[in-house]
Amino acid sequence: MKTVIISQELDELGGPEEFTSDLTDLVDADELEHLQDDGLPIQGTIVSAGMLLVGKLARTKDYDRSKLPRSVDYAFHGEEAMREIVQSMLKNTSHYATAGETGKVIESYFDGDEPNIKAVVVIEAIE
Question: Domain 2-124 falls in which CATH fold?
C-alpha cells in the first residue's frame, strides 16, 4: 500500500487552493472522468504514472470573479476565447501520479481543516 498526501497550498492571492474536479478549461475532460466533484479519485480507479490523481486549482494574481465567463459568453465569444480568460485567472495545481504512485485506489479522503487540508489517497499496488 502507498499513501499519497497532497497538501492544500496558498494561491497567488493568499487564499487556499480549491480541491475540485471543475478543471474543464484547464485540462482535457477525459482527464477528469475518474474524479469526484471534490477532486478526489473514485475508489477502484486504476492509477498510472502521469495521470491526474487529485484535482486542485488556484487563483492567479489576475483573478476577478466578475470577469469569469458565463455559459452565454461561451456561446457568443467561442470556447477558445473563454478558455484563455479562465487560464489567465485560474491555474491547474493538481497532483499527477508519479511512477511510485500507481495501482488501484482503495480509499481517498480529506484530513485537517482549512487552510491546512490534506487530500489522502491510499493506493494498492497491482501485480
Answer: OB fold (Dihydrolipoamide Acetyltransferase, E2P) (2.40.50)
Cβ atoms of 67 and 59 within 8 Å: the answer is no
Partners of 4 in the β-ladder: 121
Are 4 and 99 in contact by the 8 Å Cβ rule? The answer is no
- Residue appearing with cell numbers 488501484: 104
Instruction: Retrieve residue 31's grid coordinates.
Output: 482527464
Phi/psi zone of residue 21: left (φ > 0), alpha (ψ -120 to 50 degrees), beta? alpha
- The ranges assigned to domains in the chain are 2-124
From 65-74, 92-101, 106-115, the region with the lowest mean pLDDT: 65-74
pLDDT in tens, 31-83: 999 999 999 999 999 999 999 999 999 999 998 888 776 766 666 666 777 77
pLDDT of residue 73: 61
Burial of 61 (0-12, 13-18, 19+ CB in 10 A): exposed
Give the phi and the psi of residue 75 in degrees, each rounded to 5.
-65, -40
Sign of torsion, CA 98 29 56 91? positive
